[in-house]
Amino acid sequence: MNDEKDIHQKIKEKILEEQKELGLWKQIKEDFTVPKLNDPALDSSFELFFNYPGVWAIINHRIANKLYNKGWIKLSRALVGISSLFTKTDIHPAATIGRRVFIDHAIGVVIGATAIIEDDVLIYQGVTLGGVSLDKGKRHPTIRANSVIGSGAKVLGNIIIGKNGKIGANSVVICDVPKNSTAVGVPAKVIKRDDKNGRLDHSDLPDINKEMFEYLLKRVALLEHAVRDHDGIDLANEDHDLECIYKKFISAMNSIEK
């Protein structure tokens, strides 16, 4: 347990030391350059002022965090509250956030007080870096450098997402994820290890539910054939009824898509 505390503390101290050397205004200036590296939809710097709430959420947090660490607790909390109204993003002023962190779209992002985010992390909308206990100590996740957290993902508890980690959209992560790994699902499971690809390609991720349903359907079909061959039971009528139900289901799904 002490070793785990040391890891989180060392990461936090490293981030704070770099921030101290860089200075607040240089950090803010750097934050304005991050969207150009992460969002191909950005056409001009003018858009940063009106269409990138994630940038403003980070900048406002930089100021609030500075005030919080100097003991201006109420003022920092007030600033975060005002920022939340405009950016729809809730970042506790005590959270530790490194350099070039980008929150894309930002709406619905929640970052807890003891969360630690290293440099060059990409976070999409609807992400929660939350806690699972009421302890006063470290209860929120630590996100190592160059990680990507997909939209709607919930990363919960005092866990670590390793360097270059990738979390699939809407996943619920409650355990550590090794470096260079991809985790998806509820609860999230590691499906790729030692993956040096910096992108999170959702089109390449397996559909776990689909694979399970496919297995179940094949298993049921195998059992039906076994029953028919062994006991001579005619399932033709039942097959016809099931086919009608299936066609109604497909028709309903098509009407929803339209």
Order of helices and strands: HHHHEEEEEEEEEEEEEEEHH
Going by helix content, strand content and strand pairing, the class is alpha/beta
**Which architecture of the largest domain per CATH?**
3 Solenoid
Mean pLDDT: 84
The CATH H-level superfamily of the largest domain is Hexapeptide repeat proteins
Total DSSP helices:
6
How many domains make up the 3D coordinates? Answer: 2
CATH topology of the largest domain: UDP N-Acetylglucosamine Acyltransferase, domain 1
What would you note in describing this structure?
- 44% of the residues lie in helices and 14% in strands.
- It folds into two domains: 2-200, Hexapeptide repeat proteins (UDP N-Acetylglucosamine Acyltransferase, domain 1, 3 Solenoid), CATH 2.160.10; 208-257.
- The chain has six helices and 15 strands.
- The mean pLDDT is 84.
- The chain is elongated.
- It has a six-stranded mixed β-sheet.
- Strand 14 (182-184) and strand 15 (189-192) form a beta hairpin.
- By secondary structure, the chain is α/β, with parallel strands linked by helices.
- The termini are far apart.
Short description:
The protein has helices spanning 2-22, 24-38, 53-69, 73-87, 208-231, 236-257, and strands at residues 90-91, 96-97, 102-103, 110-111, 116-117, 122-123, 128-130, 142-143, 148-149, 154-156, 160-161, 166-167, 172-173, 182-184, 189-192.
Secondary structure layout:
Elements: H1 2-22, H2 24-38, H3 53-69, H4 73-87, E1 90-91, E2 96-97, E3 102-103, E4 110-111, E5 116-117, E6 122-123, E7 128-130, E8 142-143, E9 148-149, E10 154-156, E11 160-161, E12 166-167, E13 172-173, E14 182-184, E15 189-192, H5 208-231, H6 236-257
Parallel strand pairs: 1-4, 2-5, 3-6, 4-7, 5-8, 6-9, 7-10, 8-11, 9-12, 10-13, 12-14
Antiparallel strand pairs: 14-15
Helix pairs in contact: 2-3, 3-4
